[in-house]
Design brief:
Largest sheet: 3 strands, antiparallel
Strand content: 5-15%
Number of helices: 4
Strand order of the largest sheet: 1-2-3
Order of helices and strands: HEEHHEH
Number of strands: 3
Distance between the termini: 15 Å
Mean pLDDT: 92
Number of domains: 1
Structural class: mainly alpha
């Protein structure tokens, strides 16, 4: 059953994540030139400003328009289904994934080179030749990981063993 408080939880988490994501991107763009790097924690964490026109792990390079449509559908589905979750953990998971997906969708919709073709701002770089990513990506990955853990524990999608 969808309750108003469930909606507030999911949207509150998502809006907080969206705020953190967009603020971090604004600050990075204000302080670094594209391609510029600075060490944050030695070689363990660097900030490197790049603009990404593909999906995670550079899949779909140049397919920004289709990725924008897919992202918009995912965000709308999460807005609809997230608050219908039956347990607190699933509400949190929904908020994490919704916030992250919305953060990258905002980039695709409103950043250069133009509406619905915008490039996502990425800046978090860790060693091991891992792709550069952002806070929105991190929350999507954490949300999906938590969803997998819950599912493997026997908890149905959305809660309610």
């Amino acid at each position: 059953m969808r309750t108003r408080s469930n909606t507030y939880v999911v949207l509150g988490i998502a809006l907080f994540i969206l705020f953190l994501d967009q603020l971090s991107k604004f600050l990075i763009e204000d302080r670094l030139a594209p391609g510029e790097s600075i060490n944050v924690i030695g070689e363990l964490l660097r900030f490197t400003l790049v603009y990404n026109d593909s999906a995670a792990f550079s899949l779909g390079v140049g397919a920004t328009w289709p990725l924008t449509i897919i992202s918009a559908i995912a965000v709308l589905a999460l807005i609809w289904f997230g608050p219908r979750s039956k347990t607190t953990i699933w509400l949190i998971i929904s908020g994490f994934v919704l916030g992250g997906a919305t953060g990258n969708l905002v980039d695709r919709l409103f950043r250069e080179p133009g509406f619905a073709n915008g490039h996502v701002v990425d800046f978090l770089q860790i060693p091991f030749n891992f792709p550069i990513f952002n806070l929105a990506d991190s929350f999507v990955v954490v949300g999906v990981a938590l969803a997998l853990i819950q599912t493997f524990r026997g908890d149905e999608l959305g809660g309610g063993k």
